[in-house]
Design a protein that fits this description.
By secondary structure, this protein is an alpha+beta fold. Helix content is about 55%, strand content about 15%. The protein has a four-stranded mixed β-sheet. It folds into three domains: about 120 residues, Acyl-CoA dehydrogenase/oxidase, N-terminal domain (Butyryl-Coa Dehydrogenase, subunit A, domain 1), CATH 1.10.540.10; about 110 residues, Beta Barrel (Butyryl-CoA Dehydrogenase, subunit A, domain 2); about 150 residues, Butyryl-CoA Dehydrogenase, subunit A, domain 3. The radius of gyration is 21 Å and the shape is globular. The chain binds acetoacetyl-coenzyme A.
Length: about 375
């Protein structure tokens, strides 16, 4: 695929790979085991420019484009998927939404420190009873003078505990997609606290938390975009976010494939390397084909986004295919390792667990298929009438 990439994009990919292998990979297993947030690595990533890749230069970013960003994120994910999901939500959804919808003051206050990794962004859409159907949210933002009073609970929030700013979606009207608004929330506000921190199957070094709002007073200057614009902000943020998750899935699969080749070339059975068996060789060929197909879809989606065109369909396709591919490839990697693949000493065990969430978060793959078919058929509004 390198024939489609510019010299600058290849250089960024190489830089991300070097950083990921040197800084992230050696610590990934222990951080996963200890559920330790990769704060120091994220700070270094901020210094290297990886936390403001999509932010304009005016606000301290490098404006490197979605393709370069996707390439970098893939490299980070190959070393540590937990770090990659934090990077993805921060860059794709949070920086992207604040750059697009934020006021000048909000960009000064939040986007600038986000671009350098000084603070990390979180995105709070999901609730206990509103996952795939976010319009069912119960969290409310009631106008009170020049403020809004927030009440409700958000669930499964990536970086909920360690964020410097959270984009919160809440209802300003009781019904309808235009009854949802977005707010910029920071820790320390009265009536806002972090609830339980989830004990997850994978990506354990990133924190996933409940956020609790109990009469939390937020000034209207903290509203992101206009009142009623929140659902659009969330949906367009998720378009970008899904390219991030697709890139992350690709990175996990790349790492699983690399480990499989390494293991297969040194493991001997029946007096020969296991990669000398045709069955094993075909497994490697299938992994490589699967990865290549996903890589092309991810780059296609990133290219469409970078050109400023509607990327909804391409992003959902890339997320759906790449995440399912990552499950197939990490599953094959375990199989190829035999019993060794099932123990924590070998990294494929972690890759398998890390890949599992990718078909679920940022919209389950069933929802991706809803989005894709809606985009193709373009008949949703007609049917509703
Ligand atoms: N961009 C901009 N606007 C969009 C949009 C998009 N991609 N998709 C929909 N909209 C707009 C529509 O045009 C419509 O506007 P109008 O009323 O003006 O026509 C409005 O939003 C409502 O659209 P729908 O009627 O299609 O909305 P819906 O309620 O039927 O839902 C859905 C559509 C695609 C199923 C959506 O609910 C969805 O994506 N669900 C999944 C939620 C999700 O991905 N959650 C992930 C949480 S975040 C996370 O996981 C991050 C993490 O931690 C890693």
């Amino acid at each position: 695929m390198s024939f489609l990439l510019t010299k600058e994009q290849l250089m960024i990919q190489k830089m991300a790979r070097e950083f990921a292998r040197k800084d992230l990979a050696p610590k990934a297993a222990e951080r996963d085991l200890n559920h330790e947030f990769p704060g120091d690595s994220l700070a270094k990533m901020g210094e290297l420019g990886f936390m403001g890749m999509l932010v304009s230069e005016e606000y301290g970013g490098d404006n490197l484009g979605t393709i370069a960003y996707s390439l970098a994120l893939t490299e980070i994910a190959a070393a540590c998927a937990s770090t990659a999901v934090v990077m993805s939500v921060h860059n794709s959804i949070c920086c992207g939404s604040i750059e697009k919808y934020g006021s000048d003051q909000q960009k000064e206050e939040f986007l600038k420190p986000m671009a350098t990794g000084e603070i990390i962004g979180a995105f709070a859409l999901t609730e206990p009873e509103a996952g795939s159907d976010p319009q069912a949210m119960a969290c409310t933002a009631e106008k009170d003078g020049d403020d809004y009073i927030i009440n409700g609970t958000k669930r499964f929030i990536t970086t909920g505990k360690n964020s410097g700013v959270t984009i919160l979606l809440a209802r300003t009207e009781p019904t309808g997609s235009k009854g949802i608004s977005a707010f910029l929330i920071t820790h320390g506000m009265d009536g806002f606290e972090v609830g339980r921190v989830e004990d997850k199957m994978g990506q354990c070094a990133s924190d996933t938390t409940d956020l609790l709002f109990n009469n939390c007073r937020v000034p209207s200057s903290r509203m992101l975009g206009k009142e009623g614009e929140g659902f659009t902000i969330a949906m367009s943020g998720l378009d970008a976010g899904r390219i991030g998750i697709a890139s992350l899935s690709l990175g996990i699969a790349n790492a699983a494939m690399e480990e499989s080749i390494k293991y297969g070339k040194q493991r001997e059975q029946f007096g020969q390397k296991i990669t000398d068996f045709q069955g094993l060789r075909w497994m490697i060929a299938d992994m490589a084909m699967d990865i290549e197909a996903a890589r092309l879809m991810v780059l296609n989606a990133a290219d469409i986004k970078e050109r400023g065109e509607n990327c909804t369909q391409a992003a959902s396709m890339a997320k759906c295919f790449a995440s399912e591919m990552a499950q197939r490839v990490t599953g094959t990697a375990i199989q190829l390792h035999g019993g060794y693949g099932y123990i924590k000493e070998y990294p494929v065990e972690r890759f398998y667990r890390d890949a599992r969430i990718t078909t679920i978060y940022e919209g389950t793959n069933q929802i991706q298929r809803v989005v894709i078919s809606n985009e193709i058929l373009k008949d949703k509004k007609k049917k509703k009438k």
